[in-house]
Design goal:
Distance between the termini: 18 Å
Strand order of the largest sheet: 5-8-9-10-11-12-13
Radius of gyration: 24 Å
Bound molecules: coproporphyrinogen III
Strand content: 5-15%
Length: about 500
Amino acid sequence: MDYNGLQVAVLDPSLGDAIGACGGKPVVSGPDDAEGVDAFLDRLAGEDIGVLLLTEPDQIRALFGRAAATGRVESLLDAVRQMAVGSAAPACTDLWRSHHLSVDYEPDGTGGEALVSGMARLAGYLVNKKRTAVDGGVDTSSWQRIDMRWHFESDPYGTRGESAFLQACRREKTDYTPVWLLRQAGRYQRAYRELKSDLDFLDMCKTPELTAEITLMAVERLGVDAAILFADILPLLQPMGFHLEYVTGQGPVIHNPIRTGRAVDQLEEAEPESQHFVYEAIRTVLPALPPHIPLIGFSGAPFTLAAYAIEGQGSRDFRHVKTFMHSDPAAWHAFMARLARAVTGYLNEQIEAGVHAVQLFDSWVGCLSPDDYRTFVLPHTGYIFAHLRPGVPSIHFGVGTGSLLGLMREAGGEVIGLDWRVDLAEAWQNLEHDVAVQGNLDPMILFSSPEVIRKHAAAVLHKAAGRPGHIFNLGHGILPGTPEDHVIALVDAVHELGSVR
Ligand code: CP3
């Protein structure tokens, strides 16, 4: 993944070597003297330059200053609108925007080198995308990622059906091990925090252009093989009558948790239409996703949703849930059946809107014994998998589920998600290799170093032993504070080490 011979324009001569090392042809001029900047402006307007990387606000000021002095502002704007523009820091990004130009990439790390190497991975894609947009008459001045529609020559679903991710779901042989990451879009990314700005998380989830943009951003920046729709599992509880709030520093809170069977009877049915913003986000992001990248839809599973609805928040011991479950089994089953209907309708609408796979998150089910899982959960998750629209693979994921994996497989799913506590080789063996698996690097490893990350990625791949049907992922979501460079290093390492040689 490099510039592949593209011309990369910079005003900082010291970056020339780094660009060359990443396969680009540097186009350099001195920033300080007017003549140098004038020559640079000539080259921007006259040559086939794909990428423009400026590292200091002064460089942007100098560029526009000389363009104004020599009557060339319009030709500068025209030229830059077609290029992939990289900015080293928020101050540069703000300046570009003040000239009504969009910035296509700003790294999480600082400094020119991070900009050069980060942009190298995206340049071919971004230049292609931007030029196609300009050719199609799209104004890229202040565009968002989702403004660009890919023009498919063939059936997009056909193209995506041959993607490594969907092939692995079907346990077909792939050229390399596909990878995507739980919580691949989120607070660990500066770009996410900027997009979110001071918006409330729930409002954000209900703004399709924004969730579509975030979905796409994660795919572009990380280079993963699948997109997961940016949404959350808990808004589905709202139409039932639960009061949901995301409290900063605490996470999600249900202000009116239920603790009695009578309360279950008073709940509303969650109609799939209540989540219309999710289907709209799917329809918005699909045409903008690279043609080979499938989109994963998802829902919380009944137990995990019930856990929030009964505990009112995350829990260590799940005392209220288990007490409810054991003391009023009839009410429990009524509640779970209600949730299972809601989840089924919700996932089927997502499939109808175009997702290529669905994942059921049963994040908290690992707190149950196998017997309790079989009695209190399996019938309901089983109902969901049995009633999904056919043709779209499903992934069944939980955390701390080492002793439940066989039962989860019985409930359903073409792919079983593994957390990092289990040995992948052993777990897959126990599943008799007749289901695909997804996992299972410890997300905490991402805090170490690229070398350590690579070593652990290799270990996970070794456990999978090149068997068809392994999707590389973390054992649980990326944690806030994880360096984005490390996440990218993981994706690159998996692609390199998981290739068939
Ligand atoms: O994976 C992705 O990139 C898609 C987005 C996604 C989110 N939540 C975004 C989110 C997905 C797939 C989820 C699923 C989810 N949500 C689960 C199941 C997966 C898991 O992690 O076990 C659960 C249990 C939830 C409930 C939830 N929502 C919690 C516990 C939290 C707070 C934790 C946190 O990271 O702050 C949320 C909020 C939430 N969901 C955030 C994001 C990016 C953080 C919101 C913010 O402050 O910006």
